[in-house]
């Protein structure tokens, strides 16, 4: 079995590669990345709070621990010649697409970055889809990681991917197009392209609507410091949990916009990795399936208060402060969503934020010199 994993250098991609390698030692993993995430964070005047090594160093150390089936290719999937050559030379059985520019603040900062995000994300996936059509096996499976952000903020419980219309045929319509940033809109565009490829060509697709991911490590990355995955805390690439935990590590008060009562979906890095690893041998029921990859629905206020409490247990003096909300959003919106089908894929008790946050904070305290160095990027 040959697997293409895009975005292997990323926060989620690297631990996913190790997990798949461990569970399927006889498969061949081709990891592709253009290493842009490192540049984007550097241009945001920041760095990973947890030190990470180069891909060559990571792979060298990984082999010492038995991860012998991972190959890295540096390249840009938005360049059609590179993508087509990749598919020509490799007879892939599974594609796991994790590569994208993932930051809403970065994409929203100016027109140039909005255009770049659109081109980078949408053209890369289009190149993959057309390469599958041209060179792929008839039974090739594409596992795409998207975002729960494509759903927007509707006032009903969000189903897994489709809305049922009560008419003569009880039609199922894709639910994808309410993203609240230029980044999220690119993911909505991706989902339209995926659904079209499935309808026109019968491309086998599993789409994961991924929630906000939290955590610092997995069982595999814990084997050696040189196997660390990245942890961003800057305004552009550090999600709310990362930034709050980083603030607590340097005794910087946590600032909550508005009342902080809006609830959002979350999933641990451990569960993200495990669920996708489980999908390798999953037999699809339909040629296009959607899973809401989420395990917890938590308010911003709860996140802040939990981090405040856990930080104090580790000696921090951080406090939660509520400030006027500068964003245009529904402050009391609860983003409830169905996840029964996803939980069957995960097939285990999920890791909770309350427990994992203690580990995150403890790790960041040990690496707080990096946060202090780039603390201005938090704001």
Task: Kindly describe this structure.
The chain has 379 residues and is α/β, with parallel strands linked by helices. Helix content is 40%, strand content 17%. It has 13 helices and 14 strands. The strands form 4 sheets. The protein has a 7-stranded parallel sheet, with helices on both faces. Strands 9-11-13 form a 3-stranded mixed sheet. A two-stranded antiparallel ribbon has the order 6-7. Helix 6 runs parallel beside helix 7 (182-201) and helix 10 crosses helix 12 (353-366). The radius of gyration is 20 Å and the shape is globular. The mean pLDDT is 95.
Concise overview:
With about 375 residues, this protein is an alpha/beta fold. The chain has 13 helices and 14 strands. The strands form four sheets. It has a seven-stranded parallel sheet with strand order 3-2-1-4-5-8-12, sandwiched between helices. A three-stranded mixed sheet has the order 9-11-13. It has a two-stranded antiparallel sheet with strand order 6-7.
The Cα radius of gyration reads 20 Å
- By DSSP (H or I, 4+ residues per run), the number of helices equals 13
Number of strands: 14
Kindly state the percentage of residues in helix: 25-40%
The assigned structural class equals: alpha/beta
How would the blueprint of this fold be written?
Blueprint (H helix, E strand, L loop, with lengths): L1 E5 L6 H11 L4 E6 L2 H8 L11 H10 L5 E5 L5 H10 L4 E4 L6 H5 L2 H25 L5 E5 L16 E3 L7 E3 L7 H20 L2 E7 L1 E3 L25 H10 L4 E4 L5 E6 H11 L8 E6 L2 E4 H14 L6 E4 L16 H7 L6 H14 L1 H6 L6
Parallel strand pairs: 1-2, 1-4, 2-3, 4-5, 5-8, 8-12, 9-11, 10-14
Antiparallel strand pairs: 6-7, 11-13
Helix pairs in contact: 1-9, 4-6, 6-7, 8-10, 8-12, 10-12
